[in-house]
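Lab notebook, bench 4. Continuing the backlog of folding jobs that were queued last week. Each job is logged with the same field layout so the records can be merged later without manual cleanup. Today's entry covers Acylneuraminate cytidylyltransferase family protein, a 236-residue chain. Filled in by technician R.K.

JOB TYPE: sequence-to-structure
TARGET: Acylneuraminate cytidylyltransferase family protein
LENGTH: 236
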Amino acid sequence: MIANKSILAIIPARGGSKGIPRKNIKMLDNKPLIAYTIEEAKKSKYIDRVIVSTEDNEIAEIAKKYGAEVPFLRPEELSKDDTPGIEPIIHCLDWFEESQNFTPEYIICLQCTSPFRKSEHIDEAIEKLINNDGDSIVSICESEISPFWMKKIENNKMVDFLEKSEFYARRQDVPKVYQLNGAIYITNTKVLREIRNWYTDNTLPYIMNKESSLDIDDILDFKFAEVLIKEKNNVR
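JOB STATUS: finished
OUTPUT FIELD FOLLOWS
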């Protein structure tokens, strides 16, 4: 809790995954991928409860082993490839309001695929959101690829992706641009209920570095994460 405001962390973790089968519980070094997120969420100074939302019994048991609550199994219809990411969050909110008469002031969504996101990042993002009276805050990182240098193909010819974009001859001169890294989403619960989205005109950025922003989407990302974990272990 921060400023007398309760914070509920939701970790969505469905069983299906096309890129990497059973990705959320695939072993990364010596523990399942989901464990990294659960452990860091539980270290947070401000998060009151850590919930895993899943339709999968095996994931539920592993989540409980690492200290998360799994008070319900998510309906199968909210666990499909094309299910909008916000739907399991709304479902979790509905469940708590209906079954426990509990509505947190803030919701934080932590995806399993960000194993290098630490509790310090989570707490810094929470503090920035509360101290700046934002509607929400979303984690980002600096993009390595600038849209100012991107091209698209029209009529079998390359043209600028951005129309009438300025020309930058040197990389150093290109304006910084940022991309979502998928690590942290926090919002005021009332706002989320109203718009069913993480973004408003009052959404704040929380900038993370490249390593902490690694988002595991495919097997190459997973192999890179394995390399980083081994390097970190060797440094200790």
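OBSERVATION: Helices lie at 33-43, 57-65, 86-100, 119-131, 189-195, 219-235.
SIGNED: R.K.
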